[in-house]
Amino acid sequence: MIAAQDLHTEFQFPQEAESQLSSDTDLEDPDGKNARTAKGMAAKKGKKALGERTKGGGAGRVAGAGWVNGHHQENGMENMTLFEVVKMGKSATQSVVDDWIEAYKHDRDIALLDLINFFIQCSGCKGAVSGEMFRNMQNSEIIRKMTEEFDEDSGDYPLTLSGPQWKKFRISFCDFIAVLVRQCQYSIIYDEYMMDTVISLLTGLSDSQVRAFRHTSTLAAMKLMTALVNVALNLSINMDNTQRQYEAERNKVIAKRANDRLELLLQKRKELQENQDEIENMMNAIFKGVFVHRYRDAIAEIRAICIEEIGMWMKLYSDAFLNDSYLKYVGWTMHDKQGEVRLKCLTALQGLYYSRELSPRLELFTSRFKDRIVSMTLDKEYDVAVQAIKLLTLVLHSDEVLTAEDCESVYHLVYSAHRPIAVSAGEFLFKKLFSHRGPDEDGLPRRGRQSLNGSLIKTTVFFFLESELHEHGAYMVDSLWECASELLKDWETMISLLLDEPMPGEEALTDRQETALVEIMLCAIRQACECHPPVGRGTGKRVLTAKEKKTQLDDRTRVTEMFAVALPLLLAKYCVDIDKVTNLLQIPKYFDLDIYTTGRLEKHLDALLRQIWEVVDKHTDTEVLEACSTTYHYLCNEEFTIFNRVDIARSQLLDELVDKFNRLLEDFLQEGEEPDEDDAYQVLSTLKKISAFHNAHDLSKWDLFTSNYRLLNTGLQNGDMPEQIVIHAMQCTHYIILWHLAKVSDGSSIKGDMVTLRKQMRAFCLMCQRYINSINTAVKEQAFTILCDLLLIFSHQIMSSGREHLESLVYMPDSSLQAELLNFILDQVFIDQDDDSNSTDGQQDDEASKIEALHKRRNLLAAYCKLIIYNVVEMNTGADIFKQYMRYYNDYGDIIKETMSKTRQIDKIQCAKTLILSLQNLFNEMLSELGFNFDRSSSAFCGIKELARRFSLTFGLDQLKTREAIAMLHKDGIEFAFKEPSPQGEGSPPLNLAFLDILSEFSSKLIRQDKRTVHMYLERFMTFQMALQREDCWLPLISYRNSLQAGGDDDTMSVISGISSRGSTIRSKKSKPATASKRKLSEGDSSDAVWMNREQNVQTPVMMHSPHLTSTVLRDPKKMRPEDSYTFTMPAEQHPIQALPSQQHLWKKYNLLTSFFCALYSRRSSGLMEDDEEPIVEDVMMSSEDRLEDINEVDTNLNCCLFFFLYVRLWLSNSLFLSLGSQCFYVLT
């Protein structure tokens, strides 16, 4: 029973004080004088009073307002328990608690029993504690009884159920406990009955083996503890106020001092102190009885509850709980294996470090667990890492707590791909580096080189350079954007730092620092104008709010007005610097071009165009030229009034470049003169500029195809053309054809353009095909890449989307071109790293060059695989690609796997044939290297088998979708295995028989009836002697047959089962395994039992099932194959025991009978197919002409032959027949 003696170890109950007062005396006794009078009744009189009341019919009288018989009453209807009321959530928690208090005032035992059942039912238990159990059973006995009545069929209980109703219930459950304690804090909780019983119950439940009891009671106990902490806090405040009043009254002069008031205040302070001690005893019982055991519970959610609540206790009542005795539990739990528990630790500590008053009291804890908090910034759970960084940001308030090494471990996280982590690290960086201002910085101007932002921007540049991750400037800016956007948008100060001369005594920025500042400035402009994180952060562009859109427009206007003036000056200053110019030329694409007109900034536009012209004239770097081309493309927008001005400048620039190129080309290709290096450099630089502009602009009116084609043709004839000239000439010609195609596709071309395009495209493809065989590797790679792109563009896909008029442009590669492309891939892509000629000296440079070379090879392979996917080249050419899957898995595994997936979506059967072809090619290569007597345990053979296993996994789990493809794969594999005869002559296995061991990796992908069909197809290639072989060289055949018969016990019908189903023409869908062999023979046994007994006595070869032999007697002679024309007679010389001359005529008849019987059985077994599953024999392996329509006739013939066979068996009972009978029975079964 839940009696007082259960709690004697935790609470001391005075036995002398007894009173009938049990109601809350908030209104009756505001001074709390009678608060202690209710104590002592719990232990001695509680249970007896309950018994007396129930005997007197107390259960039927009203317990209080809103409660009848311990049940809640709404609108005069009494039908809900306390659990149901809280679950419904229709009544306010305050009113529910008030109703329960009224019931407790009238009959505390019945009300307390309802509260106990409330906790039991909240745990999901269907049982209920009765009044008799409450009186007569111990606490542990009640819990054991409730455990027995718990529903074990489901692991769900209210706290774990999903849905809005149960989420609301959890909140209501916690609120109910908090309100209950708050409403009872002046009297009821001190009666040593209600709280003692509830704490005892929750402590016992929290130690239960049932998770629902343990979870629910722990949550209730922790919320009860939090409510008691609030009560204790209020008592502490009242005690301080009372003490202050007492001191003030006592310090008065004697004439004005009121002694009665002093005595009253002294008595009140004493009572408050007693209540405080009582509350502390309760909290101590909950902490030691529940928390100390459950904070390390096996369930993570229970541990999280404990840590969350102890954080609340330390924050609410820091005087009692904020010490090392309680903080150690949070520190220990930071090492928890579950992320949600570690997260609760960090959030609990954040509430403590956030307070300026509490943080100084955490110094010892910080020094002890600081390293753990720092390491949690790299936690595998992103949410935990974010909160760890935020906690360290709060720790920064304490001076010199974090060392430089601790801070640096957080700094680099601003480059993290996970944006919340990066933003938190950016806030940490900003507060550490930018938030501390010196006294000499208060008088600095707000903008400009000498402003406070100027020094902060320099600090940002220094940090960016020290991190040595210069290509990640956009990530650093995005990390700092939320906390330092005003600093990063101070472009005026950035421009001043770049253009203005330093003041006397001021240290100027170095060239490296200026380059970093330009990059940061560009990233800040991009972030302000695009309003989304850089690539790799975030899931995509989000919808901007109206306020964000307005800010975006304002920032874009500021950028345009500011840089329209400053950009020409910046370009003029840094004209020769490649990195700075490349970044500066990207700024105009964020301009609002209307401002050039509305702001009367045309002269600054002309200055910008002149600077771009000068940049093009001075630079030959591809990146800079492409930036210039992109800038012209953005400025040449017909929607804006500045279009004509920009278009004229662009045309003048291109006219000059084309004229210069044609002039130089004539001199360069002049016959009889060998061009010098200066001429080659001039041609190359001009060609680079034209190619860069042709990428973004249509230069068709300058007719550059003829000159470029002439240049390429000369290079082929002479063979001494510089490789860079050839590469850029190919690229430029490629752009010419693509722009021509775009014009033809839009319908804006004139008559004859399509014919010209077709001629140019085919001539250029032939040119690239010839360059594939070039000596220079870079030229070959460029030719291959462009040729693959052109073949893909001008394939049959060009006619899609209503462009049938482009049919004449379709160009499909012939077999020779396909072979050249494949050979290029095999020679240039599938090579080892050490064989790559692009490697350079130096460990770091060599590693970088290897990565770059691998990237190039991956691009080449991807270009060719696209041709396979889009049916530009034959799919079977992919066999040479697929066979490299295992060997080059780390380098190209993802590309090859995706190619296999796409080809399977296009044509499953052809893809399967390609896969088996790749295995066959590998097998042939192995035979050529190791010979036909190779070891099947060799690494080469095991590698092929592992590749087959990987191929099998790519077919997935849905066998019906890949049914035909898998069957075709087995068909091709079987034919390959028996294709070549043995080089050792008859009696030896075929040359490729070991391939069946590889093919067995795909047997698991066959459905049951297809396994039988494949097995029958296999037997068409087998001879009778093959079925009897057991040497090691025949193991591939045995293992393959076993793989086809594995799991087929239910659908493999034996002769006996066929005979026993007399008169049946349809096989049952689920054949039962034969069990007749376990029965003893008797006189009344049927022939089935006779054959079963025979099967037990005869030793058959070691196989899972006997083979299904296909008859050749009833097959059309025209369709017979050489390997099919065999009979099942055994020559006398092969018999273990020679036949006597007098028995020769008997053996002839016996052989005839055997052949006839096997023919009938073969025809009988060919119809054994499930009724509801369609076989795939007709269209993949065999003809349906071999089947018999009348199975009953076959059954009759089989029965006749069987009885005749028995007759012969009884007649010829010598040992010779026994030997023959064993082998013949193997054939029959």
Which key features would you list for this structure?
single chain; 1229 residues; mainly alpha; four-stranded antiparallel β-sheet; 50 helices; 61% helix; flat; disordered N terminus; disordered C terminus; Cohesin subunit SA
Set down the secondary structure blueprint:
Blueprint: H1 41-55, E1 62-64, E2 67-68, E3 71-74, E4 77-80, H2 82-88, H3 93-106, H4 108-122, H5 131-136, H6 139-148, H7 164-183, H8 194-206, H9 211-250, H10 259-294, H11 300-316, H12 318-321, H13 324-333, H14 339-353, H15 363-375, H16 382-395, H17 404-411, H18 419-433, H19 452-467, H20 473-488, H21 491-499, H22 511-530, H23 546-573, H24 578-584, H25 594-598, H26 602-618, H27 622-635, H28 643-668, H29 677-696, H30 705-718, H31 723-746, H32 753-771, H33 777-793, H34 815-828, H35 843-869, H36 879-882, H37 889-906, H38 908-930, H39 939-953, H40 963-977, H41 995-999, H42 1008-1019, H43 1024-1028, H44 1035-1045, H45 1055-1060, H46 1087-1097, H47 1144-1165, H48 1177-1180, H49 1191-1211, H50 1215-1228
Antiparallel strand pairs: 1-2, 2-3, 3-4
